[in-house]
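Researcher: I've got a protein sequence and the SMILES for magnesium ion. Could you write out the 3D structure of the bound complex as structure tokens? I'd like something to compare against our soaking experiments later this week.
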Amino acid sequence: MIVVFTDLDGTLLDENYSYEAAKPALNYLLRSNIPIVFCSSKTRAEIEVYRREMGIKDPFISENGAAIFIPKYYFDFPYAYTKQLDDYNVIELGTEYSVLRETLERIRRTTGYEIVGFGDMTVEEVARDCGLSLKEAKLAKLREYDEAFSILEGDEREILRLIREAGLNYTKGGRYYHIIGNNDKGRAVHILTELYSKKFKDVKTIGIGDSLNDLPMLMTVDIPVLVKKRDGTYDMDIERIMEGKLLKAEGIGPSGWKWAIENIVIKGKGDEK
Ligand SMILES: [Mg+2]
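Model: Sure. Here is the predicted complex with magnesium ion in place.
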């Protein structure tokens, strides 16, 4: 059984948050009952909107690997989870939002640098900055384990060093830095893969991403796929770190996504890699 783990922003979604270009491939997976697991820096509230819209019923990973949401009756065997919430069993791997906010605030105070987090911005500001509707921006601000921030003025490397000194971590998505706990997409993908391996005997995982926060996910799956960024180039760091192991999709964001599914799943080209 194939399981597809995918990033959203810049991967399945283009810069206007459209997945139109990927639709034929998406529909193929849905018809074939191939699990599609979103693995995004987005919040649970944001991800739920896309799942509902696309008709996906599989588990998902929110906020850069901070939490795994598994529909209650999805796996018919017992497994460890942190809490139950609505219709999910939730496996929490991340650090509480308030702790992340306090750390960012302390760094701002001690360095005097101009750092702006989602928590400092109004719904209107987030909407404008991200090109989201007000409704979407409201969902984007419902952060549980990850604070998105930008550095308006200050030494990037020093800020990132101070984050690490505080025992926390950071990653960079398309538009923002993210301060997070000791979670990454890879650990969450690994846990879900174990559960899938128990459900289906033979599991082959595909991971599709576009930027550095996808690296741990790409390093964890059987077939890592990198789509082109908006400017038509591939993420240089991922290219360098993963070298020959990577399958480079021909296409930007959702077009590359469609290319990947067509070539790996539909034509079965992944076996050659
Ligand atoms: Mg992305």
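Model: The chain has ten helices and 13 strands. The chain has two domains: 2-66+184-272, 97-180.
Researcher: Great, I'll pass this along to the crystallography team.
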